[in-house]
Amino acid sequence: MKRVLAALLLFAGPVNAQVSSTAAPVANSSGSVTNQAVQVVPSKTFTSVINGVSCQGATLTINPFLSSTTGWSDPYERFYNEPVYDTLDLVGATDPEGNPVPDGRPDNPGSILFHKPVRTGQKTNFSVNGGITAQISIPLDRSHIRTCRAAAEKQVELMAAALADKRLNYELARLKTCSELMKGGAIFNPSSPYASICADVVLVNPPGVLPPHTHSIPTSSKTAETSDAAKPTQQQPSSPASP
After folding, report:
1. Does the reported pTM lie above 0.70?
2. Residue 180 and residue 198: Cα distance in Å, rounded?
3. Residue 75: is the preceding peptide bond cis (ω within 30°)?
4. Residue 55: CB partners within 8 Å, gap ≥ 6?
5. Which pLDDT tens digit goes with each residue over 4-46?
């Protein structure tokens, strides 16, 4: 029990500390740092879809950027007045002979002699940053991409064949319609904007069919003489002789 009371008195007892006031210079520094970052976000590669077949390829993304920053201090002060205190120490203590001597403390503590202008160094910071970021995206499954591209090429060929078939049907229908109209004697006016529809259609005689025609029979001089000789000669009756 005695030991517990002694411990309590030890911790609860007053503590006397020696305090000394010494003037120490204090330096303050301030500054600002601006961090700028440009983020490149991965995106999906371009996808080509052909008749249900989709393929992705390597892409190159180039992103130019331009950024600027401005920094300033508010309130803006170019200079501030720093007080200069009176540190004169001539009296305060005496030597063995009774003469006044400095005691290490200013004779007029807190007395300001004058104010010294100090430059703050504040300024407006302005910066412009520019650059280009590039990103290349390459698919890893190259075999799948090659197969997809081959399938896409086949789909293009099939679509080209289907287009050629439709073109052939259109041209045959145009030829048939124009020929039937031309046989019936109906054509577009040459000044009509639709005259070019049947401009390249030409009617010809079908094989094995003899078109309506006429022939002229040539004649010669011999044929004419023979025909004249074949005509019967008419003789005039002779008159009786006069007595």
Report:
1. no
2. 11
3. yes
4. 47, 48, 145, 148, 149, 152
5. 556 666 555 554 444 444 444 555 555 555 555 556 565 556 6
HSE-CB at 116 with a 13 A cutoff on CA atoms is 7
Kindly report, residue by residue over 192-231, the tens digit of the pLDDT. 999 999 999 988 887 777 777 787 777 666 655 665 555 5
Each residue's pLDDT tens digit, 34-85 = 555 556 565 556 677 777 778 877 777 788 888 888 888 788 888 889 999 9
Token pair listed for 41: 């976000």
Distance CA(237)–CA(241), nearest Å, equals 12
The count of other CB atoms within 10 Å of the CB of residue 178 is: 20
Q: Over the chain, what HEC string results? A: CHHHHHHHHHHHCCCCCCCCCCCCCCCCCCCCCCCCCCCCCCCCCCEEEECCEEEECCEEEEEEEEEEEEECCCCCCCEEEEEEECCCCCCEEECCCCCEEECCCCCCCCCEEEEEEEECCCCCEEEEEEEEEEEEECCCCHHHHHHHHHHHHHHHHHHHHHHHHHHHHHHHHHHHHHHHHHHCCCCCCCCCCCHHHCCCCCCCCCCCCCCCCCCCCCCCHHHHHHHHHCCCCCCCCCCCCCC
